[in-house]
Amino acid sequence: MFGLQRFQSDACVSKCNLTGSMVRSGLGKCTSCAKLPERLGEHSRQFRRCVMAELRTQLGEDDDEDEPEYLQFKVILLGDGAVGKTSMATRFCEDHFAKQYKQTIGLDFFVKRVVLPGDIHVCLQIWDIGGQSIGGKMLSNYIYGSSAVVLCYDITNYQSFQHLEDWLFLVKRTFDKTPLPYIALMANKHDLAHIRAVKVDKHNQFAEENDLYSYFVSARTGDQVHSSFFRIAADLAGVTLTKPELEVAQKPTKAELVNHPRNDPAHPEANADDIAKEKKCSIM
């Protein structure tokens, strides 16, 4: 009887077609198969989560293409004292011009954000370096890491133009083993062109010989200040501007009426009526 029971027990054992486990015929499925629906459900949920994650990733990439691009550049203003570096930075960043400025000692900072075509947001960090820093030990540290260097001079001061050679030499020495940054030549006080000491030909020659970008501005009137820095930001960002876009960037310039003295204060003003009265006609 023991052998019969053993035979019947062996006869009741079969193989699961799904998992390969040995099970009793009466059970119909093994322990692994009993949990199979749960496992299949879990795999299905994991599969759905993976699909949704992939979709979110693709949608995120699509959204990134529509999001604006943000860039930041360091711009250095170099030049002799009193050429108008602080005036140009203040005019561009704050649209303000003060008749009197204190001399910049060391350096000063300005920040201006502009939006370029293509929804590209550019933040310009403008470093206003004092003119007396040309012999300072910290000047190379100020210049290092800059994206652009703007060499500034006063068109009514020829000496400030001559000293640009020294300023440019310091820039080249700082970037001796690295590529030079974007370098521009900016002539300030263009509103005083009638008393200019630096001819336009001299300006253009210096810019061509040293491969510099050329700008003429007036911090006092604001003429070409915004459009010049706007173009510098575009060049750094690799954006090509059209002429209408540059014209839009330039803010309207207000004309100023100056009441110049018409005669020497030390002498009384001549009046035509008084002169006529003083004249006497005599017939001999």
Descriptive overview:
Residues 258-267, 274-284 have a biased composition (Basic and acidic residues). It comes from Symbiodinium microadriaticum (Dinoflagellate). It holds the Pfam family Ras. This is Ras-related protein Rab-28. By secondary structure, the protein is an alpha/beta fold. The protein has a domain at 69-249: P-loop containing nucleotide triphosphate hydrolases (Rossmann fold, 3-Layer(aba) Sandwich), CATH 3.40.50. The protein has 11 helices and 8 strands. The chain has helices at 2-11, 31-34, 36-66, 85-94, 139-143, 158-162, 164-174, 200-209, 225-237, 243-249, 272-278, and strands spanning 13-15, 22-24, 69-78, 107-116, 120-129, 148-154, 182-188, 213-216. The protein has a 6-stranded mixed sheet, with helices on both faces. The protein has a two-stranded antiparallel ribbon with strand order 1-2. α9 packs across α10 (243-249). The chain is globular.
